[in-house]
Amino acid sequence: MAVSAAGAGSKFGFATGQVIQEFGYDDDVDPRVREEIEEVTGNELVDEEYGDVCDGTLIWWREDDAEQEDLTDLLVDAQANLEDGGGLIWVLTPKPGRPGHVRPSDIEEAARTAGMHATSAAAVADAWSGIRIASRSRVR
């Protein structure tokens, strides 16, 4: 079941005018998810080489992409690219039973190690599910 454009905006929490950086693009990503995010934001997704701050991050992550520690490093890098360290980070992984599936607990552990936490999960496409990652609240 594809997510509608309005659904992608509400499901991911992205809004008009935002710049979303994408990591892990490959030929297996769901083009409809990408198109729907671009439609909601009004901007094309920017790639890993983007040299400015952004408002959100979309990470396509598969079991064979690398080790869990590499996901931790990627989350730290993605957060550093976000405006004031805030913003939305989504890690998308193939759904259970599909090649490349990553257990949610592995993503949650990578987030904890990076000083972040998983806040919600969603089915985002036929073959992909997502986990939203957020910065831990800091006491001031």
Description:
- It is a single chain.
- The chain has 140 residues and is α/β, with parallel strands linked by helices.
- It has a single domain (5-135), classed as 3-Layer(aba) Sandwich (Rossmann fold).
- It has 4 helices and 5 strands, in the order αβαβαβαββ.
- The protein has a 5-stranded mixed beta sheet with strand order 1-2-3-5-4, covered by helices on one side.
- Helix 1 crosses helix 2 (31-41) and helix 3 packs across helix 4 (104-113).
- It is globular.
- The termini are far apart.
Helix content: 25-40%
How many domains? The number is 1
Question: β content, as a range?
Answer: 15-25%
* CATH architectural name: 3-Layer(aba) Sandwich
The CA-CA distance between the termini, in Å, is 43 Å
- Low-pLDDT ranges: 1-6
Largest sheet, strands/sense/barrel:
5 strands, mixed
Classify the secondary structure makeup into a structural class.
Answer: alpha/beta
Could you tell me the CATH topology label.
Answer: Rossmann fold
Rg result? 14 Å
* Name of the CATH first level: Alpha Beta
In sequence order, what are the helices and strands, one letter per element?
HEHEHEHEE
Query: How many individual helices?
Result: 4
Strands of the widest sheet, in order across it, are: 1-2-3-5-4
Number of strands: 5
Q: Write the CATH homologous superfamily.
A: Vaccinia Virus protein VP39
Average predicted local confidence, pLDDT: 88
Taken from the alpha-carbon principal axes, the silhouette is: globular
Organism: Georgenia ruanii
Protein name: DUF3052 family protein
Pfam family, one: DUF3052
